[in-house]
Amino acid sequence: MDLSNTRLGGRYLLGPIIGTGGMSDVYAATDELLGRDIAVKMMRADLARDDTFLERFRREAKNAAKLNHHAIVAVYDTGQTDEAHGSVPYIVMERVHGQTLRDIVRDSGPFPLDEASRVMAEVCRALGFSHEAGIIHRDIKPANIMITNTGAVKVMDFGIARALSDTSSAMTQTAAVIGTAQYLSPEQARGKSAEARSDIYAAGCVFYEIATGQPPFSGESPFSVAFQHVQETPLPPSQVQGMNLDPDPALALDAVTLTAMAKDPSDRYDSSADMAADLQRMAEGRMPLAAQAYTDEPVQEPSTSHLPVAAPTPAPADEPEPAPDAPRTEKKRRRGWVVALWIIAILALIGGGTAVAWNWFGGSDDTEQTSEQVQIPDVSGQPRDEAMSALEDAGFDVDIEDRPDAEIPRDQAIGTEPGFGSSLPHGSQLTLLVSSGQEVTDVPDLTGMTTQQAQQALQDAGLRLRSNVSEQASESVDEGRVIEQTHPSGSQVSKGTEVGITVSTGPEDVRVPRVTGQSRDDAVQNLEDAGFEVDVTMVDSSEDENRVLSASNEGTTQPRGTTITIEVSRGNQFTMPQLVGRDYDEVYSTLQQAGWRGGPDRVNRTNVNQLDPLAVGRVVGQSAQEGETIDRNAPITVRVNVLGIP
């Protein structure tokens, strides 16, 4: 159903649909209260009919909203709308303009290796941030990662995949597997709970794809792809057709990608931060730590690399390698796998696929296969003792972990790990998470920090930076630095509180007044009153002494405090008038009127004999030509006719 032009929550006006998936529609929208562009994701009505799903979806949306990181699409709000067919949840998110990695690779091919490394380093930093907050993405794939029009990396759909995995609907579980088969970790394919290293595995798959242009595994069905994730070793990415890498970049690419994609989670990177660090080294042209153990030897072609992660996985003992002369047997076995996997897919669609896939993919030993599977009950909100009793009565060994929580009262259950709705063998251990109440912390002093530094300082203190950062001009605080904060430094607030900051945009821009032609004193005063510094340069000029001849940036807009240079006349020159043709008696007065300050003795006369009595006394030459600028006290020489034989 298209809900365009619908208003949600009294403030979110939905525009056109800008994205559609198997589980939701995404609308361009406007937050009419704040006047900003947003995106609203509406879950499909048929998936929203399960009360259990609704509760988990709301909780996971709240978790996602806690993730305030520049590389994570911000979640602003969550809610639900009542339609004729029931309550439908929605999530209000930051609207990002750009392209997904899926679209970029599809339209333009693989990324250059250094750019692919840079992008995935940023993705892993975002994952590391979410993992520290206790949130696993569970659905990392190229379609959930965007490059904005400004080149920034944005990871989307935090928390939503987890909400889907918690529902007990078999069809929903199957849809989740189908949607992410190419990036599904082996443990998830076996039916185990996802963990932080499951995201690392998926990030390795994405890195493989954007660097080579193809995913590490492909097949006729999602379950055949999932099977490969469990049992098969991917072709080292450097050996994909068309890569043509030098030995060192090839080794680096294989080491990072295949370390992240190790079958055993304990063989992968310890954390997303470690993977991000290795990717950053690659982006800078350095060798990642995953390959350093092998750099003492000459770098070989990728096919002969000593990377343990690139080595083929040994075949199981009960599955001997086929003889080289038996291709027909191998082809039959391969067809048998495909048929079996399609059977798994059909069983999954009728609700039995999870258990079958678990056994088929080798997810449990013989004891586990025969153990009774018990579903974890929902104990959230129950008192500690009641929750523990309920879990023990269900047949679980319970370990209790206290965690601060701003919403759930002290000594009440937050939930369990794994989450409710999951199934474990009878007698398995699980963790009951119990609220220790609100935890307070001191607000750090953020003044003088950059926005990024302030965000890190708040994160270290267990606080969050408000997404809307205010800006204000300042003459005393450098541009990009914090001027003030909403909560005083040293004050105590609940952990998770949002703290707002105001950041300097630098000095305010003001217009430089026009001062040319003014006296020096007036010009300096006017410029200083406008907020500028003044530098005076004296120059030779025929203009009046202390007259401003020019001013830098006059009439333009400049930051307050900028230095303006003015040129001021010394008044020590004058412009020579026309003396030729005048009577000698007029020379002195003419010079005085033009601004010359010399005395009569500074006028030198040179006589020129002339037979024409009418020309006697007339000036026929001058030492400085008309219009020439010379010193006001310079001597002047004129040539004057006298009666005589030339």
From TrEMBL:
The chain crosses the membrane at residues 337-361. InterPro entries: Kinase-like_dom_sf, PASTA_dom, Prot_kinase_dom, Protein_kinase_ATP_BS, Ser/Thr_kinase_AS. One of its GO terms (molecular function) is protein serine/threonine kinase activity. One of its GO terms (biological process) is negative regulation of fatty acid biosynthetic process. Its EC number is 2.7.11.1. Residues 295-331 are annotated as: Disordered. ATP binds at residue 41. The keyword Zinc does not apply. This is non-specific serine/threonine protein kinase.
